[in-house]
Fold this sequence. Notes:
The protein is built from eight helices and no strands. It is an all-alpha fold. The chain folds into two domains: about 1-65, no CATH class; about 85-144, no CATH class. Helix 6 (about 90-100) crosses helix 7 (about 105-125) and helix 7 packs antiparallel against helix 8 (about 130-140). The radius of gyration is 16 Å and the shape is globular.
Amino acid sequence: MLFGNDRRQLRQMYFDAWGKFRRQEPITPLEAQIAQVVAWHPEYHRLFDKPEKYLDQDYLPEFGETNPFLHLGLHLGIREQVSIDRPAGIAAVHGALKSRQDPHDAEHAMIEALAESLWEAQRAGTAPDEAGYLARLRRLVGEA
Length: 144
């Protein structure tokens, strides 16, 4: 596993990447991706400017809170899937969506399909249904 299960360590990586980007320090390709998705979300910038306050913050959906780290992580997950074209065909869907709309909006549409597929798998106690996920993605571009 790339990041392990340490929430604090993962979040620190996000804070570090954003800090390096803002200070115009050299960053790795992964840090550049993190910085780009943070840059796309100005509503989270105040959070990333205060790591000491938000490193251990809990975000509870039952109180209507959105977890910014989860949201940004889903962006990175989509990018990883597209880079390896898994499930097979996701790169073509991504390309088609980007040709019709802003890349950020395209990723958000794909994130909704990913989140729904993950939620269903979690609820059923199974692995995500890759074929069902790809079918959701293809519907985004008008494919059956």
